[in-house]
Amino acid sequence: MSRRNSSSIDSGNKSVSLQETHHNDDAVPNQNNANDFNEHLTSPGDGEVVNYKKANNANLDVVDIPTSGVSCRHRFFGAIKGGSLRGSIFAFASIAFGSGLLSFPIAMAKTGPIVGLILFIVVTILSYWTLHILIMAGRQHKKLEYNELVIATMGNGMRIFADVANLALCLGVIMSYQYIISIFFMELFKEIFNYVPESNINLPKFIQMASCMIIVQIPLSLLKNMSKLQYASIIGTVTLIYTIIVVFCEMPFYFKNYFEEPDHFLKDIWFTNIDINVLDSVSIFYYGYCAHNGIFQVYQELNKPSRRRMVKVLNGAFIMQLLMYVFMAYGGFFSQFYNCLDVFIRRPDLPGFTPDYLILIAKISIIVCLHCTMAINYNIMRDSINCMFNNNSPMQTKYDVIVTICIYIFSNTLTFFVTNVTQILNFVGGVSTVVISTFIPIMIHVKSSGLPMTHWSNVIKLIICFIFSGLGIAATIKGIFDFFK
Predict the structure, then answer these.
(1) Among 45, 107, 141, 196, whose Cα sits 20 to 30 Å from the Cα of 454?
(2) Is the dihedral of CA 443, 447, 448, 453 positive or negative?
């Protein structure tokens, strides 16, 4: 997301007065970094940009006073502008949405819909709490950047640990995109062109993956100006919403078809045997909520950034995520029950409805969007590489090209041998996600509390931290064993 232009803009013939008022609870943190303040704010009532002063005191919040009231119609159905509450809600939710959403049905299938719902609720509450921790700690320490906050509270060593986890997370995300693109391409060749390899399926798979890497993935990832892909995340979210609607609308027909088959019966629907596969479900749910390292970017681009407004963004984004995740998880599960595939929309077409053109449109759209969001994720990965190995300075172009090519060859080679996306999500949603979204935020909370480590409240936080960190480590170990099995 790009920063707004801070040049002076005339607000027209309306006079806008500014008042300096004390708001201890919602004060904007005072920092020397120019990124921590916006020079101008967009009035939510009429979309005009007005000038305001920077606050010189951490307890002094300078706000613009709208010149007109905000109608309900304009608030809920007006144009969405960058930095507005609705724009920030959509932007933050878009960070979390990804390929993991397509695996929510199999997460339910591995635990049953009742146990799966309990795990989902626990991970949801934990993710919401740790995001809230980051917002409060960032304001307390006046560090509105993830790595800077880690350094301020736990030192540079923990920052390096976080960067390693972020590199692994970005690599896993890219691999999950490559896997989904590959299987969708192979299925489209079969469904549209009726092409089925007669003998060695690995050869066409290799040709497809190599072609996408050379023609699309590497050139897009070498773009330095990601604003050219600024609408990719929005289009990707719209594509996922379309896919969820199709899945949920088709669910009753699959449900009816399921019970017309004599091998299926009701008694085993709600519960299944709980085994080590529960780790797959936990890692998928973790992955679905991992947006913690993007929370401060949204905060800084929010008009009139304050604790209260950011909590509204967080609440709105979580409501959007909950609705999408629940509809996909249960719409998918009650279509195929315990026969769900790793990427759900690979499910067999309904009898008499072959090919399913609605799902074909979804697959084609997802292929296009994943290539764009892959480049965006690689740009985040490039920043971590520069931070770790190049003193936070951009690499020379020739080295950037070499590193990009090597990473894509490495990731596509690993992805070529992956047989199930949960192998990747166990890795991504295991250690990497737990470190970024659970371990580090809780440790920041403990360090920022001002209480001794042995205080009962810190002990409870540490127990929660180590329990879920242990689950993440176990999920990663399982994913590694599954890969080499």
Answers:
(1) 141
(2) positive
Go through 9-21 and write b for each residue having 16 or more CB atoms within 10 A of its CB, e for each that does not.
eebeeeebeeeee
- Rounded to 5 degrees, what are φ and ψ at 22? -85, 130
Helix, strand or coil, per DSSP, at residue 50: strand
Q: What is the pTM of this model?
A: 0.77
- Per-residue model confidence (pLDDT) at position 200: 62
The structure tokens 């101008």 sit at 40
| pLDDT over 90 at 445, yes or no | yes
Q: How far apart are CA 25 and CA 385, in angstroms?
A: 37
User: Collapsing DSSP states into helix, strand and coil, what is residue 21?
Assistant: strand
Mind listing the pLDDT tens digit for each residue in 120-140? 999 999 999 999 999 999 989
Domains of the chain: 18-77 (no CATH), 85-484 (1.20.1740)
Query: 3-state class of 22 per DSSP?
Result: strand
Measured distance CA(97)–CA(323) in Å, rounded: 12
Task: Please give the Cα distance from 130 to 243 (Å, whole number).
Answer: 29
Q: How far apart are CA 105 and CA 89, in angstroms?
A: 25
* C-alpha–C-alpha distance, residues 96 and 173, integer Å: 11
pLDDT one-digit tens code per residue, 227-263: 666 566 677 778 888 988 998 888 888 877 776 665 5
CA distance 268 to 15: 68
Helix (H, G, I), strand (E, B) or coil at 224: coil
Could you give the CA distance from residue 243 to residue 103 in angstroms, rounded to a whole number? 13
CA distance 350 to 250: 9
Residue 46: count other Cβ atoms within 10 Å of its Cβ: 15
